Amino acid sequence: MFLTIAKGPQIAPNAALECALSWVALPNGGTTHPAGQVYIGKVVDADLVFGLSKTALHGADVIATHPILLPAGPALLRIDEVCFPVGAIAHHHTHTAAGFRVLTRGALQIEAGSDARRISQGDHWFEPADTPVRAVALQSTGVTSFVRCMVVPPQYEGKSTFTLVDPADAELPRLQMTHRHIDHPVYVDAG
């Protein structure tokens, strides 16, 4: 299977999508959390569309496509938003699920292993499951936030996939806020 992110509803219109979820920014999304809302399916005025397909998708609106393993049986396509106020740090952690992130406001420094990079508004990145990562909000005013789409094992429905690498970090401030939009069941025909 492939997880794709596109910037509009024309996510390979002739492709057989197994599932699609759309994120639409709210008119006042620059000041609210969450900054958008999610719809099932492709939405005409969507800012982002996340889709699962059996083949890699291509086209003018496709931002990125990545192969992804689905758990045996049903899975969940989760979309949530993470918001970082000034000074927030997501200490080294992992997620049980893989997926894309798209920065919708502000700037982050993402550290994974020995790699550190600056992520700016509009940038996307893919995080494999169980990969340690640290994120630092870089803005001096306002907020930084990203939309995240992950393929989640069904036992995590309604539950966090977040695990701190060092349990001692639980004593440090956790300023970021997460808003889960949807855990949408996905059933893919293996044939």
Secondary-structure element pattern, one letter each: EEEEEEEEEEEEEEE
Give the percentage of residues in beta strands: over 45%
**Mean of residue pLDDT?**
89
Low-pLDDT sequence parts: none
Radius of gyration (CA) equals: 16 Å
The largest sheet is:
5 strands, antiparallel
Characterize the overall form.
globular
Structural class, by secondary structure, is mainly beta
Strand runs, count: 15
Distance between the termini: 12 Å
Helix content: under 10%
Strand order of the largest sheet: 3-2-4-1-5
Q: With helices defined by DSSP (H or I, 4 residues minimum), what is the helix count?
A: 0
Structural commentary:
The strands form 3 sheets. This protein has a 5-stranded antiparallel beta sheet, with no helix packed on it. The chain has a 5-stranded antiparallel beta sheet with strand order 11-8-13-6-15, with no helix packed on it. It contains no helices and 15 strands. It is 0% helix and 53% strand. Strand 9 (107-112) and strand 10 form a beta hairpin. The chain has 191 residues and is mostly beta strands.
Secondary structure: elements and pairs:
Blueprint: E1 2-6, E2 17-25, E3 36-40, E4 48-53, E5 62-67, E6 75-85, E7 89-95, E8 98-105, E9 107-112, E10 115-120, E11 124-127, E12 133-137, E13 143-152, E14 162-164, E15 177-186
Antiparallel strand pairs: 1-4, 1-5, 2-3, 2-4, 6-13, 6-15, 7-12, 7-14, 8-11, 8-13, 9-10, 9-12
